[in-house]
Structure formats: C-alpha cells, structure tokens
Amino acid sequence: MDQRLMDFINKDQYEELQKGINNCPKKLLGLHKISGGYVLVVYRPYAKSVKATDVSGCSRYYLKPIDDAGTFGAFFEELPFENYLLEIEYGVNDIVITEDPYSFSSEIGELDLHLFGEGKHYEIYNKLGAHPVVRNSVEGVSFAVWAPHARSVSVIGDFNMWDGRLHPMNLISSSGIYELFIPRVQPGAIYKYQVVTRSGEVLHKSDPYANCSELRPNNASVVADITNYYWQDDSWMKQRTQKARVDYLKEPINIYEVHLGSWKKHNDNDDNGFYNYRELAHELADYVVDMGYTHIELMGIAEYPFDGSWGYQVTGYYAPTRRYGTPQDFMYFIDYMHQKGISIILDWVPAHFPKDAHGLARFDGEALFEHPDSRRGEHPHWGTYIFNYGKKEVENFLLANVLFWIKQYHIDGIRVDAVASMLYLDYGKQDGEWLPNENGGRENYDAILLMQHINEVVEKDYPGVLVIAEESTAWAGVTAPVDMKGLGFHFKWNMGWMNDFLEYMKLDPYFRQFNHNRLTFSLMYAYSENFIQVLSHDEVVHGKCTLLNKMPGEDFDKFANLRTAYGFMYGHPGKKLLFMGQEFAQLREWSEARSLDWYLLQEEKHQQMQHYVKTLNKLYLKNSAFYANDAEQIGFEWIDCSDAQSSIISFIRRGNSSKDQLLFVCNFTPVEKTEFTVGVPCPGNYTEVLNSDALEFGGQGKIIGGSVHAVKKSCNGKTYSITFTLPPLSIVVFHYHYHSGKKKKR
C-alpha cells in the first residue's frame, strides 16, 4: 500500500466512516490533490474489487483494498483523468458502473446558506429536497436536507439496497445542511434519509422537501421531476397578476369546498378507490361551472399519513398526496380548472404537525421543526407538535412552502388553517401547559411575524393570489394591511356568524323570537374585517349532522328552512363558501371514507335543492349587489331587523349602480304572512327575482311571479312600501332601480 495514500487518510475520519457517523465524507472519499500527486478513495462495503476508468473506458486503474470493510484507494503521481467512472465488482456478473458521487461539488452556495439562515430564501425548495439534475453531463439526483443536530445523514433507497453506508451525505460548513449528488438515480426512485443522532439512534426519515411520496401506508419519498409539465394557462396567469387587493373585495367569490377523495369514489368499499386528479379535473370542473361557483377550495392536499385527518396533519409539505396521482396529475388538475375559469384555493396547515416517526417530528433526534419547550412546542389535546416559528430556518420552510404552491402549481389562494392556535400561546391549553411571551402575555409574537412576512411577500410578488385566515376569535386586524399593523390576510372566515346562525337555525321556529340577536348580531361587526361567510366541512361531521338535518321540523319544513338559510347567507355581506354535498341536501354526515350520496339526486326534493343553490349561484354572479360592496357599509341597509316576535327580517343590498339594487325579505317561521307590508327605499317596481317557496325549488308555489309597485305609504321608517304575500319559511328577493321619486323639471 502506498504510504502517501495512507498518510492522506485521516484516522478519525476513517473510523467515523466505518461506524457510519462521518458527516464530511468528501474530505476522505473521492479524488484529492495532495503534495506530490493525487489520491482516490472509494468506500463500497461488500465489493470484491473496484476499478477507476476514464469516461471512455480506455484507461483503467485498479484500486487496492485498504481493509476488509470495503475501502479502496490508489495514489497517482499525475492526474489520471478529469472525469472518471467506478467499476465495482460484487460477484460474478454483478458489476456496477457509475460515476463517483464524491467527485461532484455542491451547488448550494454561500448566498443560499445566508438567505436560509435569515429565513428569506424564497426558493429554498429548489436547493433542499431531491432534484433530478445534470452535472458535468451526468444525469442524477441532487439530495439535500437540513439536519443540524444529526451526527451523520445518509441517503438510502431502492437504488442502494437501503444501505446507509453507501451514500453518506456531506455537511456544508456549520449550516446544518447535508448534500450529495448521486449519479444515475432516476425520477421514480424511492428514498429516505438515514439520520444517526448524537445519541447513536438511527432514524429513517422522509424528505421534508420531497416533491412526491409513496401511497400510504408506505411513507418513503419519491424522486420527482416537477419541471417538465407544459402549462396551458398563460392567459389566466397573466390576468391574475393584474389584480390588486381592492379587486378581490369588488369581485364575486363563491367557493365550493371539496375533499377530493370523497367527492366521488370509484368504489366505496376500496380504501384506494379514488378518482385520479385528471379524472377529477373534468368531472369536478363541469359540475362547478354548471353550478355557478367561482372557486374551489381543496381540503388537505399536502401529503399526510392518516386518512381520518383529512389532510390536516401533514408530513409532506411539498408533495401533493399520492392518493389521487402524481405531481404532474395535480398540475393538470389546476391547469384544467384555470382553462375552465375556476380559481383554486389550497388549505394550508402551518399550525401543527403529527408525531409520526417518518415525518418532521424530532427530525434529527432533537426538536428541530418544533419548539423544544413542550409548553410552546406541543398541542396537548391534539397530540401534535407546534412549529418553532422563531427559528429562521423553520420560518423559511413555511414561507417558501406557500410560495412553492403558488409558483410551481399555480395555486390561486391559500387558506391558512387554525390561525387562532398560532396567535395565542395558551390556545387549547390549561394553566401550566403554556409559556407566556417576554411581556407576560399570551400573544405569539413569532407566529404573528411569520404571517405578516408571508402576506407581505405574497402581496408584493404574487398579486392576484388570495391569502385567507381561518381565525375563530376576535383578534383585531386579521385582514388589515401589514403596514397598518394588521396580519395582512385578504379575507377571514366568519366563524362567529357561522356559529350564531346555525344555532339560530337549529331552534324550533317558536323559540327563534327569543334568540333574534343570533340572526342579526353579525351585522354589528360585518365590516370590521373582510369576511367570507362559511358553511364548512367542520359543521357536518362528528355528530353535528348535515346542514339539512340541523333544521327543525318534518321533512318539508327541513328543506324550507335550509332554502331560507342559504338565501340569507347569500344576502349577508361577505364572500361565500359551502361544503360539498350540502348543495343537494346530503342526509348522512360527511365521511372521508365514502363518496357523497349522489344517489339522492334520484329524488325530486334533492334535485330541487340542488336547482335552488344553482339558481342562487347564478343570481349571485349576475347581480353586483351580492358582492361589489361586501366591504363597504353603503352596500347594506336594514329595513327591519327588530321584528323578533315574527322572526322576519328585511334589508337591502346595493351594487355597482342605482340599477343594481336588491331587497331581501326573510321569514324564519312556518307562518304565511298575507298582505305583508315592508318599507322600501324608493318608488317604482320591485321585481321578484327569487322566491324560495317556488314549486321548482320544492316549495308550495306561493310566489308573486312578477313585480310589485311601491306606494306612498309609510312603513319601517320609509316613505314608500310594498305589500305582498310572504310565504312561510322563505326568502323573497326583489330587484329594483333606485330613484329619488322626484319628478324631473322640464
């Protein structure tokens, strides 16, 4: 054995390599220039021999075994080749030819490390993770992972027999980032990271930045090339970038909330009987366009292990779930929706993550993504970890993840789940289970800064993209701009309205008179934030019943109540969201394990409910009074909100012009009001554009069927009024053209 080779081999590094704890293998392995020549060291356990050749195969050099453990080496007085191949023999007819992974330099530079450490590397997902690339004309995959507490990290997969000794990764300075380019690995390869902790424990972890995963219950990461999809939504994307914050407030936003796995299934008895993203694109787009929705909000798309979490306990933040296909399939889904004029909102879960062994939890043997103090780092009642929002690399992981979905998948909006649990340090905790902030308060300053950072970047770099908060408290300024010390969201779910209104609707009509404030209180704060009125999935699970079965009374009254409820929801200021299945009055509670009960549409009453919601949607799109002034007080005016005894309310909505005005009258009791008189803002004709009691909707048919002329008769503080028959449990909507009533001078 050449002494110069042996002098080069550092004893400590060599022993660490043998023990599987070397975190800088490039200092030992590969081709190195030394005084007087060059050395080449290769580590391949179980190899019988190793040869090095130039890429043409003409020059061949045998490497000598340094030990019996698979270490080979050679000394060269002159550089034998610029690029070389390794010919590794394991047995007869068992020869592997490959480039040396340790001959390639890292493509993660000082600027990458600096920005990542500052929490401002907005495309860190292009550096970390697994990316098919070509280096020095060699195809392979660049692997990189952040694991600063690890003793060592290796790439393991189906390409190296899951042997952690074969591809130990190289730690880049003090960044905590390990990297390695492995030649000849192809997209579709299955892999994990083998992490050896400082205590000597060996962990097998999925890639936090993986772009694809195996279908559960398998949980390894999958190498994916997400750069080769040909998008066809250029006109959509160009139009989107021209929008500003004010545009959203003036536009119709009517959201259909969907769980893709249970909207439709091929077979309810098959756990994997899912529709593919591409199948869903066509069927769902046709349905949504026909129904008149403007947006689809997707529950839980980022990879998650447990079906019952609905996607809200995420392990793969950068990978669309494999339940419905590949990343390219999901891109097709979004692309097709855009071509049909449908915006896509993605639910995003930065509030917590599960403790699954293969996921983010204790990723490198210590608290890394989660806060190390359990009083900050765990949700005791959810059984999950809380992100350490104050750690810059964690902030970068989350911020870049939002930008990843927007840029790489053309997502049009992000709905941030469980914002309240992020804002409050004591959320869901008892005394002694939480740690106050430095001022002794319960506000989570780090989470606030993270949300402000995200919203500022999205607003600046991706105009036209919505960021929506699911925030259930009275936190002030959720939708106020960051420069006004707000959180910077575009919209907030109106959880207070949803809870009050559903509690009101569940009451027997007789008792509604004693709870009238539940119906009207939301208008006291309707303009304090930019709201979305939601009837979401959370209200139709876990024993809460479907929306139809929340309604009191016998079958006919249930449907009448629900039609009235939907009509009031659409008339109330704020954008709209309805969970799938509720548009045709689903009877069974929603379950992620089965398809919606589409067979109900064989029954006339469910067809009529679907037709009613479709009519509401079309009316919503047609009349700017429904949406143009959602954020302006001029857009709403009570006519009468004080008739608690009769449980009748009336109000007007104003649109873009005097020609686009609507009058709403809602009767929340099963009592018909003949000769019902309501004050109106001006003289003229009031044309009935919607009556929930119409026969076509399943009602009794007590409709006006035309116009009512206003007369000069004082009512509800108005000079003019109209009189008509108000059906029981109904909503009647009139269109009118506002004018002062004064005759023009000739």
Structural summary, described in words:
This protein has 746 residues and is an alpha+beta fold. Among the domains are: 101 residues, Sandwich (Immunoglobulin-like); 113 residues, Immunoglobulin-like (Sandwich), CATH 2.60.40; 246 residues, Alpha-Beta Barrel (TIM Barrel), CATH 3.20.20. Helices cover 23% and strands 25% of the residues. The protein has an 8-stranded parallel beta barrel with strand order 16-17-20-23-24-25-26-27. The chain has a 7-stranded antiparallel β-sheet with strand order 1-2-5-4-3-6-7. α7 packs parallel to α8, α10 runs parallel beside α12 and α17 packs parallel to α18. The chain is elongated. The model has no long low-confidence stretch (mean pLDDT 95). InterPro entries: A-amylase/branching_C, Branching_enzy, GH, GH13_cat_dom, GlgB, GlgB_N, GlgB_N_E_set_prok, Glyco_hydro_13_N. Pfam families: Alpha-amylase (PF00128), Alpha-amylase_C (PF02806), CBM_48 (PF02922), GlgB_N (PF22019). It catalyses: Transfers a segment of a (1->4)-alpha-D-glucan chain to a primary hydroxy group in a similar glucan chain.
